[in-house]
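User: For a reading group we're discussing how well predicted structures match intuition. Take PDR/VanB family oxidoreductase. Before you show the prediction, I'll give you the sequence so everyone sees exactly what went in.
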Amino acid sequence: MNNQSSPLDTLLQVKVIARTWLADDISGFDLSPLSDGNLPAFEAGAHIDLHVPGGPVRQYSLYDLPGESPRYRIGVLRDPQSRGGSVKLLDNVQAGDTLTISAPRNHFALHDDQKDRSILFAGGIGITPIFCMAQQLAREHRPFEMHYCGRTLSRMAFIERLQQAQFDEKSQVHMHVDDGAPDQQLDARSAIGAPSSDKHLYVCGPTGFMDHILQTARELGWDEAHLHREYFAAAPIDSSGDERFEIEIGSSGQVIEVHADQSAAQALLDAGFDLPLSCEQGVCGTCMTKVLAGEPDHRDLYLTDDERARNDTFMPCCSRAKTSRLVLDL
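Assistant: Thanks. Here is the predicted 3D structure of PDR/VanB family oxidoreductase, as structure tokens, for the group to look at:
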């Protein structure tokens, strides 16, 4: 049996120092370290893995840049259609409680060229990482435009802060509500505009909203290298036609069978590999594994189309194989 070391971040114990109302059905949680000291630093776009008491591990974006006091701030939407994480957190966790989290990780970072222009799109709770991006861009005096879409203003977080924020002349913030006047509705083609080597697009929100923004950008000629996204959840996958396949461990030649009703990640865990798992939906990228041979059946939302086409990585939490065997770099 081969036991591999896990690259998961060290777990941190934090205290909920405040719960706040951010919008209808959205609560904010302020988290501070249990003992004296600072929390690990982060930049806009980062998220933490939060171990929901009595529930699963869920990812939440950090919506405020670090301030004078050490704390992380997350926004949680009550979603009755979720798999239980948000409901358990909102119903059971109060100020004064202790939670277990990971250090921040960032798969949605801003491009680091100070001269680049950014176009930010947020739908619903997708505002959490986008709001942090707007703060960082404004702090660095970098040009950006933000479009924030929601059903109605009462269900949209940070409205007052966005209206009061003193962004400079390099930034523009637009809010679009479904129940508002026709002239303020989002025109995606106009907002995205023509592609340019110095423009980057960032989008976060419900899957349908994100797909619309990304597809519109592609139709306008944008290339994947300038399109950046972060999904919160994956759509259900039809697994009725799944078949067994094999995983070969490149370093040892060990062969592991993945049954039709089993994920590749579960097969690896059962075989003794300490595989890092977090979202288990192919959204966060935590379990990304290098593929040495074979063709994956990509079912994640993390990799770009170009990355999928290379077939040199896959997400064992949700993806499978089109060939009878995958050789993995483990």
